[in-house]
Design goal:
Distance between the termini: 29 Å
Radius of gyration: 15 Å
Low-confidence stretches: 1-10
Number of domains: 1
Mean pLDDT: 80
Largest sheet: 4 strands, mixed
Strand order of the largest sheet: 1-2-3-4
Order of helices and strands: EHEEHEHHH
Length: about 140
């Protein structure tokens, strides 16, 4: 069963929450782990989203994150780190959406009549996926 992150999807960009990605030998060598669990993974864009809260400031957590990122890169998957500031900003979130679409070889276009409402829904859907209150 594929879990999607609330309202955070546009067309066929549907992140899967807490998605396990097994590593091949090269990725295991780069990361030091046999797999990673991504906060959110978008298969169609080969992009992982990682929420970096205060825990990620710890040197040990940084080493783990670097290994995770290296392992994913060997598989052609880009990891985009998100923090509280990103999740509070509709403009920053749209920038993330643009990166995701670019990775898919498409151009992000906001064509909705209710674009302001849709942007807030997009932001709050992603915030909810990471256990944060809506803004």
């Amino acid at each position: 069963m594929v879990k999607t992150l609330g309202l955070f999807y546009i067309q066929d960009v549907r992140p899967m929450a807490n998605h396990k990605i097994p590593f091949d030998r090269t990725a295991m060598d780069a990361s030091g782990t046999p797999y990673v669990i991504c906060d959110a993974y978008i298969p169609s864009a080969k992009t992982a989203l990682e929420y970096n809260g205060r825990y990620h400031d710890d040197p040990q957590a940084r080493l783990h994150d670097e290994g995770k990122s290296l392992g994913l890169e060997t598989l052609g998957i880009t990891m985009l780190p998100l923090n509280q500031d990103t999740l509070r900003s509709v403009d920053a979130l749209e920038a993330v959406a643009r990166i995701i679409y670019k990775r898919k070889g498409q151009r992000y276009r906001n064509r909705s009549r209710n674009s302001a409402v849709k942007r807030i829904e997009l932001l709050n859907g992603l915030r909810a996926a990471f256990g944060l209150k809506p803004c």
